[in-house]
Predict the structure of HAD family phosphatase.
Amino acid sequence: MTLKAVLFDFNGVIINDEPLHERLIEQLLIEENLRPKSGEFRKYCLGRSDRACLTELFSLRGRFLADAALDTLVARKAVAYLRELEAIDPLPIYPGVPDILFHLRAAQLPMAIVSGALRSEIETVLQRSQLHENFSVIVSGDMQLSSKPEPDGYLKAIELLNEKNTGLNLKPYECLAIEDTFAGIEAAKRAGIAVVGVANSYPFHMLQRRANWTVDYLIDLEIDRIQKILTQKGQVLKAS
């Protein structure tokens, strides 16, 4: 096995915006005459799409959301998110992100975003941060795929990377996912992908129990060492 592609989560890995998302979700609840509860965002929303998050939060309050109503809520939040971003300069991109992306590009490893965020949100952040050219594939929350912890987003990213890179023939075990949440780690593992947990949203020791590798900061990620470990595992499997 060799490492052939790296798949990134977005919120909590590329950009430090989870507190903003929590505030906007709480504001939506208030506007709908519902009371936010402490800890709910972390329990039901962290790492999941807005659709999955809002469906869960409304259901807990005895409110069923029809598709049209859910679409409206997601769109309202997206407008508010982009409006908030306009007032933030520079954007809170995590330290080390540009460096690790540069290193991966130099190693000619294709990269993708796999996120529950809307494509408009992802592209706005990447464009403003001059990071867009690093990602040939973006799998977003408006692609009608099941939210993490389901593996659908990761499997779709592999499919799209293969379409864009003739001869790549990418398999899940040849990928590395970078995640910060339990739901994201589970999604990648269920897709058959090894995972690096970055301790941006949860403490190191909590991610360490779930991810294949764990780092405090993305800048600590040693791609060459992971590549070596994967290669050694592949050699062992071939020998057996």
Summary: DSSP finds ten helices and six strands in the chain.
